[in-house]
Amino acid sequence: MDITADQRRYLKSLAHHLNPVVMIGNNGLTDAVLREIAVNLDAHELIKIRVLGDDRELRAQYMQQICDDLQAAPVGLLGKLLIIYRPTEEGKSRIVLPKPKKA
């Protein structure tokens, strides 16, 4: 899923006050963690995920894998927090994104 820079900025502003709802621990990105992320995306659309560990490249890989596996959009990577967005069914989305600007 692709979002524009303006939409990403808008989603980051909405995510500012959110607390992480899922934590990726020492066992990494397991199937159980992916299921929990999917459940929370269905419930909230926009979530924060805390990643334990200091490996920045690993956090970026987690972000990419989550977005690929769950058809979500990466919003941001802030320190040890991943911000991910996935709208619910068409027409029933809770978050209304700004319209893309025409070039």
TrEMBL record:
InterPro entries in the cross-refs: RNA-binding_CRM (IPR001890), RNA-binding_domain (IPR051925), RNA-binding_YhbY (IPR017924), YhbY-like_sf (IPR035920)
Domain CRM, first and last residues per copy: 1-97
GO MF assignments: RNA binding
Chain coiled-coil ranges: none
Keywords for the protein's UniProt record, in alphabetical order: RNA-binding
Keyword RNA-binding: yes
PROSITE patterns named among the record's database cross-references: CRM (PS51295)
Protein name, entry field: Ribosome assembly RNA-binding protein YhbY
Species: Chitinilyticum piscinae
Gene that specifies this protein: yhbY
